[in-house]
Amino acid sequence: MACGAGQSRMAMHLSRSFRALAALLCAASVAACSHSTSSSGAGASPAPAAIKIGIDLPLSGADASVGRSTLNGMLLAISQANAKGLPGKFKLETMQLDDAVQGVHSPEQGVSNVKTMIADPSVLAMLGPYNSNVASAEIPVTNGAGLAQISPSAVSDGLTLGADAATLRRNNPAQNAFFRVCTTDSRQGSAAAAFALKFGWKKAYIIDDDETYGLDLANVFEHDFAAKGGTILGHDHIAKNTQDFKSLLTKIAATKPDLIFFGGTTSTGAGLIRQQMFDTGLGKVAFMGGDGIPDIATVAGPRADGTYYTLAAPNAQKLPSAQAFIKAYEAAYHKPIGPYSANAYAAAQVAIVAIEHAIVAAGNAMPTRAQVLAQVAKTTDVRTPIGPISFDANGDVKQPVLSLYTIKNGKPVFLDQINLK
Amino acid sequence: MHEFLAQLVNGISLGGIYALIAIGYTMVYGIVELINFAHGDVYTLGSFFSLAILTALGATGELHGSVLVIDVALSLVGAAVCCGLIGVLIERLAYRRLRNAPRLAPLITAIGVSFILENVMQAWKGSAPLPFPDVLPNPTFALGPVSVSMQQLVVVALALVAMISLQIFVSRSKTGKAMRAVAQDRQAALLMGIDVNRTIAITFLIAGVLAGIGGFVSGVYYQSTWFLNGFGAGLKAFTAAVLGGIGNLPGAMLGGFSIGIIESFATWKLGGQWSNVTVFAILVIVLIVRPSGLLGRRTQEKV
Question: A287, CA 20 to 30 Å: which among A199, A257, A317, B93?
Answer without folding.
Answer: A317
